[in-house]
Specification:
With about 325 residues, the protein is an alpha/beta fold. The protein folds into two domains: about 120 residues, NAD(P)-binding Rossmann-like Domain (Rossmann fold), CATH 3.40.50.720; about 180 residues, Rossmann fold, CATH 3.40.50. The chain is about 30% helix and about 15% strand. The chain has a seven-stranded parallel β-sheet, with helices on both faces. Strand 5, helix 4 and strand 6 form a beta-alpha-beta unit. Helix 1 runs parallel beside helix 11. It starts with a strand and ends in a 10-residue tail after the last helix. This is Glyoxylate reductase/hydroxypyruvate reductase. Keywords: Oxidoreductase. Belongs to the D-isomer specific 2-hydroxyacid dehydrogenase family.
């Protein structure tokens, strides 16, 4: 462990690979205790350190629950370097008066770009085609070899037309889909900017040629894509998930892809993460799996880190958090 001496508020940073701009920002007015091991901080170390700090800088890999908060007697604020916060028990934080901030908006465009890239990669079978070049499968020209699916003239469905979903829709318009449809808990006024039609969940499943998941993980959306929902989709439909892994049943997705119930899938998120290298999905040519890199641009990650730090500093100084969860 590395720390800076000083009678200032203490902040525990749970990873050593947090961008330095956030560390420098925190150091300006806080004593930093930073985990210096490889990967995610072990639970025992997290519990030990959180007991002595005023602020906590965490990531998606860190579970912040009642058990942890029971020992965090001095904790005033938690800043997570993420938009999602399903790794945090929000009610337990509220009950204890612990402020909680995340990093919304910052990664919208980067994640939307990756979503479009993953959609194109899956639809046009790019990874499969690249593998054929490497393994000697590229032979005499064949008119139907490596043919994929075109976005032009298609029906693109989006589950969750929030910030990221809307940005994805805007980026897909130049590809000239015949129709954009979406399902949300309620109709979105912003849908008019992309001429997207609000439909039922059943219609979204049955009509989409490409179905893109950009909704949050909630009790209602957990395992939403399963045997029942896959059975409602077109047998050549392509599913893209850049939201949260547990929204899709990995086992049911394997069955749907391997039996031809749906055409293909592109995943930037899985359940669990990382996905084991011997997982059945990785044996399928019609499934593209990425290692949760939706926000992985240098500029985006640096801004996420600084916003998480800014949330912590605001909470420690009694100021409103720039991006408060409640």
């Amino acid at each position: 462990m590395a720390s800076n001496a000083g009678k200032r508020p203490k902040v525990f940073v749970t990873r050593k690979d947090v961008p330095q701009n956030a560390i420098d920002l925190l150091k300006s007015s806080c004593e930093i205790i930073q985990y210096d091991g490889v990967g995610a901080v072990p639970r025992a170390v997290l519990k030990e350190r959180v007991a002595e700090v005023d602020g906590l800088f965490c990531l998606l890999t860190d579970k912040i629950d009642g058990d942890l908060l029971d020992v965090a007697k001095k904790l005033k604020v938690v800043g997570t370097m993420s938009v999602g916060y399903d790794h945090i028990d929000v009610k337990e934080c509220q009950k204890r008066g612990v402020l909680l901030g995340n990093t919304p908006d910052v990664l919208t465009e980067a994640t939307a770009e990756l979503t479009v890239a993953l959609l194109l990669c899956t639809a046009r079978r790019l990874t499969e085609a690249a593998d054929e070049v490497r393994n000697g499968g590229w032979g005499t020209w064949n008119p139907l070899w490596m043919c994929g699916k075109s976005l032009q003239g298609s029906t693109i469905g989006i589950l969750g037309l929030g910030r990221i979903g809307l940005s994805v829709a805007k980026k897909l318009l130049p590809f000239e889909p015949a129709k954009l449809i979406y399902y949300n808990r309620s109709e979105q006024d912003a849908a008019a900017t992309v001429n997207a039609e609000y439909v039922s969940m059943d219609k979204l499943l049955s009509e989409s040629d490409f179905l893109i998941i950009t909704c949050a993980l909630t009790t209602e959306t957990r395992q939403l894509f399963n045997k029942k929902t896959f059975a409602q989709m077109k047998n050549d439909a392509i599913l893209i998930n850049t939201s949260r892994g547990p929204i899709v049943s990995m086992d049911d997705l394997f069955e749907a892809l391997s039996t031809g119930q749906i055409g293909a899938a592109g995943l930037d998120v899985t359940d669990p993460e990382p996905l084991p290298t011997d997982h059945r999905l990785l044996t399928l040519k019609n499934c593209v799996v990425l290692p949760h890199i939706g926000s992985a641009t240098v500029a985006t990650r640096m801004r996420m880190a600084s916003l998480a730090a800014e949330n912590i500093l605001a909470g420690l100084s009694g100021q409103p958090l720039p991006a408060s969860i409640y």
